[in-house]
Batch of 2 targets.
Target 1
Amino acid sequence: MASVEAFDKAITNVKCRMKTIELKYFTGTGNSLQILKTCKDEFEKNDFIVDFSSVTDTKDFNYDCGLAGFCFPVHAFGLPRICRKFLNNPDVQNIT
Ligand SMILES: Cc1cc2nc3c(=O)[nH]c(=O)nc-3n(C[C@H](O)[C@H](O)[C@H](O)COP(=O)(O)O)c2cc1C
């Protein structure tokens, strides 16, 4: 399955770089939270250190992470404003 292959590729990529994984979500009814929590659990099962938080959380984001993952719902055919604002941050855009 393509998604499993993509996950394996992401795992290998991060393992090579030995850095933490940053996961950010925004959720209204809990779907996006549940999806990203599932990803978090899988990464942790594979011994990665995961930093998991909501976009509404003001805690620092580690821009030097090995992998950044976001899970947001579609609102009005696009991203919720708070998510767009977060992703437009130049520091986020410069994550390699
Ligand atoms: C204000 C609002 C606008 C939405 N707009 C769309 C939309 O344009 N297209 C769509 O497919 N779903 C839309 N949805 C549905 C959500 O994307 C969907 O229910 C999603 O799973 C909610 O995720 P959450 O539980 O993480 O909030 C909208 C939901 C809300 C509350």
Target 2
Amino acid sequence: MDDSLSPTKQEDDYVTSITEEHDTICWGCGLRLIISPYAPIFKCGWCGAITNHNARQYDNKYFWLRRLRDRSFVIVLLLFMLFIIGSGVWGIYPVVFSIGYFWGVFHMTITAILSIATLSTYVLAAFRSPGAPPRIPWGSYPTMGRGALMDYTFCNVCSKPKSPNTHHCRSCGMCVLDMDHHCPFIGNCVGAGNHRSFILFLMSAVTSTFYVSIMSSYILYQIWPPLRHIPTVTLSWSTIVAVLKESALPFLISVESLPIRGFVLIYLFFASVSIEIGLAVLLWQQLCFIYEGKTYLSHLNSTSNGNDEVDEKDCQNIVRFFGCSNTATRYLLSFWNIKKIHKK
Ligand SMILES: [Zn+2]
Ligand SMILES: [Zn+2]
Ligand SMILES: [Zn+2]
């Protein structure tokens, strides 16, 4: 290394109390550092880059297999969504149109809007790049100023510096900026590039499944065959048996004359309610993290490090996330903040 590029006098100031010394080169600024041989992890005193000799080595052997598995699952889920939409239309429309033409057209419009919103946001979240970190020059002393790579680590797979909020995903085979998590349902990472599409997908999916559960239960109620009454004659030795005979049995017997449409609607109802509950919990958790100004991974890091400090809990974080900057939201937020100050 050129002596003019390594101001050893300056470096010595940044290295403290070392008994046995050995020198190494900082990957960030290229300066020679003198460190203890027992220090597998050290931080450069000049640029702030962290060198970790014990960094996890990623096994890139089955990358294409993992990618294929993720993509196939996305195709299966897309087909499942189309199946839900198709069977919903088949099960609900004829009955709605028989109630009234206006209702038919009204529900047709709602179905079209919800389907397009859910499918398009899903495709965006699944196929958009989750956000590659910006290219920065690194490795040379004059270009890297003091603290220019503060807390950056080096990704051995991408051969690139990664900021504290950037993580390498083995399944996506890339470093992801502001990585939240790798979601198997979209076969993609959720990061800076597609986080908004992911949240919008969750919102439209929760709304759609809520709509399907309401509509399927309403139509089931409309088409359910009348309950056949079974008279209880002599067997009245127990009230439970009587109640069963009076209510549950006719209900079960009536299922026998339920059209196939009814069974499809029962399936739709249970499927939509269970998906709705799962997605609503996930959406709520995601919105809480956005409100607190962190991602799922940064939340995990802060709790494992024991410092559960919150950046700043603020509705502005949510507004910034969705990129709304119109005066109406700003007015509402200033009103909200005034209320918060008054409560304090
Ligand atoms: Zn350095
Ligand atoms: Zn990487
Ligand atoms: Zn990933």
